UniProtKB/TrEMBL annotation:
Transport keyword on record: no
GO CC aspect terms: cytosol
InterPro entries the UniProt entry points to: AKR, AKR_Detox_Biosynth, NAD(P)_OxRdtase_dom_sf, NADP_OxRdtase_dom
Superkingdom assignment: Bacteria
Gene3D superfamilies: NADP-dependent oxidoreductase domain
Keywords, ordered alphabetically: Oxidoreductase
Organism listed in the record: Paenibacillus sabuli
Residue ranges of every copy of the NADP-dependent oxidoreductase domain listed in the record: 15-310
CDD domains in the record: AKR_AKR9C1
Residue ranges of coiled coil: none
Sequence intervals crossing the membrane: none
Entry keyword Oxidoreductase: yes
Name assigned to this protein: Aldo/keto reductase
Length: 337
C-alpha cells in the first residue's frame, strides 16, 4: 500500500484509512481486531475512531488491537460531540477538550494520540480558545498533530489564520464527507486545502453503501441507507444523478473485473488533494472487498468518465470567474494526479 504525507506535516499515512465506527456495534470485537491485524499486515498504518463511536467502545477495541504495535500505527480520534449530560459535556471548549483527551487516552490505552480532530465546528466556543487548548495538548505530548472534520471552508480558513497569528499549531487535515455521490466540497473546500496544503481524509467514500451496487431503485430494508435522516439516508442518495453515477460505476467494475466499491474507492485514490479515504466494514467480507481498492490504477478513460458523470454543475461564482482568466496563462490541472 502506498504511503502519503498528511497535509503540511512530515507524517506518513497509508493511502487507505481504516474507519472503526462499527467496532463494538455491527462488528464484533474479535472481527474488529482481526480487521486491524489484516490491515497492518498489508501495509496499512492509519486508523480513525472517535470518542462517541458506540459510546467509547470503538476506542477501547482499537486500544486492545494496537497495544503491541502502537509505534507503527497512526491513530486518529475526535472530540466535540456530547459525552456527558451536564452543560459542559459537549463542544470544543477548553474544559471539554481536556476532559475528552484524557478519557480517550484511557480507553485507547495509550499515552498519546497521533491525530486529534475537532469533530464539528462549535458556534458556542471562540475558535481562539479551541486552538489554544489544542496547541497546549501538542506541547504536553498528549497529542502529536491536530485536524478537523465537517468544517465549512471559512471555518477552516479562520482556524488556520488564528493559528498563524498566535503561532499555535495548525490543522494538518480535514475529514469531510466526499465520494462520487457527494462532491459538495469541490465548491470551496478542495481548492482551499490544495492552496493551504491541508490533507483530506474523506468519510463515507462509497456513499454510505450506495456505491456498493447492492441496491436497486427500491428503498433497502437494512443497512445505513434505511435511516430516515442523516447524510447516508435513502432520501438523499436516491436521485436520478446518483443512479446514473451508480450505473457508470457498475459498468466500469464489470469492465475491470472489480467490485463497485473498489471502483468508487479507487477513483478517490487518484483525486488530487485526497490523502486517504476512510473505509469501514461490518464484516470481514466487506473489509476484504474494500482493501481490493488499493494496488492498481484505474485507466484514464474510466476515471474521467466517473469524474464527468459525478461533477457538480457549473455555479456562481465559478462560472463567472472563468470569464476573467488571463489569456495565454494556464493553471495547473488539479483534476488528477
Amino acid at each position: 500500500m502506498k504511503m502519503k504525507r498528511l497535509g503540511r506535516s512530515g507524517l506518513a499515512v497509508s493511502e487507505l484509512c481504516l474507519g472503526t465506527m462499527t467496532f463494538g456495534n455491527t462488528t464484533s470485537e474479535p472481527d474488529s481486531i482481526d480487521m486491524i491485524n489484516r490491515f497492518v499486515e498489508r501495509g496499512g498504518n492509519f486508523l480513525d475512531t472517535a470518542n462517541v463511536y458506540v459510546n467509547g467502545r470503538s476506542e477501547e477495541i482499537v486500544g486492545k488491537a494496537i497495544k503491541d504495535k502502537r509505534s507503527e500505527i497512526v491513530l486518529a480520534t475526535k472530540v466535540r460531540m456530547k459525552t456527558a449530560e451536564h452543560v459542559n459535556g459537549a463542544g470544543v471548549s477548553r474544559k471539554h477538550i481536556m476532559d475528552g483527551v484524557d478519557d480517550s487516552l484511557r480507553r485507547l490505552n495509550t499515552d498519546y494520540i497521533d491525530l486529534y480532530q475537532v469533530h464539528v465546528w462549535d458556534h458556542a466556543t471562540p475558535i481562539e480558545e479551541t486552538m489554544r487548548a489544542l496547541d497546549d495538548l501538542v506541547a504536553s505530548g498528549k497529542v502529536r498533530y491536530i485536524g478537523c472534520s465537517n468544517f465549512l471552508a471559512w471555518q477552516l480558513m479562520k482556524a488556520l489564520a488564528v493559528s498563524e497569528l498566535n503561532r499555535y499549531v495548525k490543522f494538518i487535515s480535514i475529514q469531510p464527507q466526499y465520494s462520487l455521490v457527494s462532491r459538495e466540497m469541490d465548491r470551496e473546500m478542495l481548492s482551499l486545502c490544495l492552496e493551504e496544503n491541508v490533507g483530506i481524509i474523506p468519510w463515507a467514500p462509497i456513499g454510505g453503501g450506495f456505491l456498493t451496487g447492492r441496491y436497486g431503485k427500491e428503498p433497502p430494508t437494512s443497512g445505513r441507507l434505511t435511516a430516515v435522516a442523516g447524510e447516508s439516508s435513502w432520501a438523499l442518495r436516491a436521485t436520478d444523478k446518483n443512479f446514473a453515477i451508480l450505473d457508470a460505476v457498475r459498468e466500469i467494475a464489470d469492465q475491470l473485473d472489480k467490485s463497485p466499491s473498489q471502483v468508487a474507492l479507487n477513483w478517490l485514490l487518484r483525486r488530487n488533494g485526497i490523502t486517504a479515504p476512510i473505509f469501514g466494514a461490518s464484516t470481514l467480507e466487506q473489509f476484504e472487498d474494500n482493501m481490493g481498492a488499493a494496488g492498481w490504477r484505474m485507466p484514464d478513460e474510466q476515471w474521467l468518465r466517473l469524474d464527468e458523470v459525478s461533477r457538480l454543475p457549473s455555479e456562481y461564482p465559478h462560472r463567472f470567474l472563468e470569464k476573467f482568466r488571463r489569456p495565454g496563462l494556464s493553471e495547473p490541472d488539479q483534476s488528477m494526479i
